[in-house]
Amino acid sequence: MKKSVDVALGDRSYQVHIGAGLLPKAQGLVPPLQGRLAFILTDENTKVYGETLKAVLEQTASAVHVMHVPPGEETKSFKWFENVVEWMLDHQVTRQSILFAVGGGVVGDLGGFSAASVLRGIDFVQVPTTLLAMVDSSVGGKSGIDTRHGKNLVGAFHQPVSVIADSDALKTLPAREMRAGYAEAVKHGALGDAAFFGWLEENGEKVLALDPSALAQFVETNCSIKATIVAQDEKEAGRRALLNLGHTFGHALENAAGYSGVLLHGEAVAVGCVLAAQLSLRLGFCDAGTLDRLRTHLKSAGLPTTIRDIAGTASYDPAALVKSMYGDKKAETGGLNFVLLNKIGDAFVQRRVAESDVLAVLNQSIQGE
Ligand code: ADP
Ligand code: ZN
Description:
Blueprint: E1 2-7, E2 14-19, E3 37-43, H1 47-57, E4 63-69, H2 78-90, E5 98-103, H3 105-117, E6 123-128, H4 131-137, E7 142-147, E8 150-157, E9 162-166, H5 175-192, H6 194-208, H7 212-232, H8 247-257, H9 265-282, H10 288-300, H11 318-326, E10 336-343, E11 346-353, H12 355-366
Parallel strand pairs: 2-9, 3-4, 3-5, 5-6, 6-9
Antiparallel strand pairs: 1-2, 7-8, 10-11
The structure holds adenosine-5'-diphosphate (ADP) and zinc ion (ZN).
């Protein structure tokens, strides 16, 4: 079963192709490759998918070059950006060449930024192999690398020409990574689609068990929700900010955990969404039932919902967490901004939230509530 989602961005529009068994048929899902050079960027854990794609592309491209980068966030660096760009230049990349990023968010972000930069921009195809990358980074065109000042601080908006989300790749994805990707989907439902949230409560278990039809519908709905928001606001001036639900808290927790693997991004988002709901309740926006539904569902998916659920809690100092929130690039001057909830499916941006309220919910969460 094959589905697709249109990401409508004028002359930068593209399709996300979703289904099982797509990679061996990738030829029909990308622009014509006759006479063009193809580059495949992948990591050590996903190179089998890079090989499958290589065999397909070799049928038409003039040549196919493959590069493996080490897995992990450290690869989203100036050093690897340089390595990737110089690798393409070593192989006589031209403006007609095309880069395929086969992997999770790390490969996608690094590949997208390299494609945006080399020769001032070449075509780029994303082949996400994690659930997180399928439901999140495959729509929206954000790419970039990390610096010593923080994550994703250097990058570009560079839309792919096509995205191929082959659910067969998820068969080798560790269960913990699968759950972490699922958290971003719960976020999508919570911030803008109550019906989808209800669908998740019914079908989430099937998705996590890799049921092909549930999975295809899941990825399709997620991509549609995100595509609709991105089409309205490509450069994040307004509504796109709602996609940051749970992320101001989440980034602070990731920062404190040191990107060490103790806390995956999606896990931080799960705890962050619960904290956002707790803050919403405290400030009189949502009711206790909304918080409870969100927490119960995340828990049932095997995700952490309090700071206490995260290993190494002793090091989480509420004041330090608040301090790092001020450093988040999405914060404006004059106070902390949060995406809050009125109810499931109805989120908004609240500006200048008092620090005392933020500290109160952090303390609660550290105690495991
Ligand atoms: P994301 O930000 O999408 O979670 P990462 O690029 O950080 O992605 O990937 C998370 C981890 O999962 C990395 O170690 C990566 O190599 C590994 N990985 C990605 N896709 C697969 C897959 N399909 N099978 C097995 N491991 C994978
Ligand atoms: Zn996220």
